[in-house]
Amino acid sequence: MADAYRRGVDERSAAATIRARGAVGSAAATSPALAEVSARDFSAALAEECFGPFALVVRYERAGRVLFDGYPTGVAVAWAQHHGGPWPATNSLHTSVGMTAMRRFLRPIAWQGAPSHALPEELRDGPVVVPTRIDGAIALPGEAGRI
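-> structure tokens emitted (147 positions)
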């Protein structure tokens, strides 16, 4: 297991920057490692689990949830995820899992009258630069622009 962990860290160091690595006490021991990658360079390979004391920081320009001294629940934020609990755990406004759970961490911001150059890139007219929903349909980067 220690060898598999070390290989996992080595493989991830090809795509992410290792920011910190602890000392190894013996050949059988592992050392904690902390890596960093930009959201633009984040890949499916980096999303794979590296079993052991490894953490990957993915840097985004904006965040909907910031954790200090904790860890995420591990529950998928996906349209197919369903809480299954009784009210009030599950209702149309608030749920603890799935896509609508993200609403708990969002803050509405109005950009009333803002010129296009002042808007975040993902809100400007033109090509889609981040996955988004337009009139309820998913639009992926590189697809046709918005009106």
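The chain has three domains: 1-62, 72-108, 115-147.
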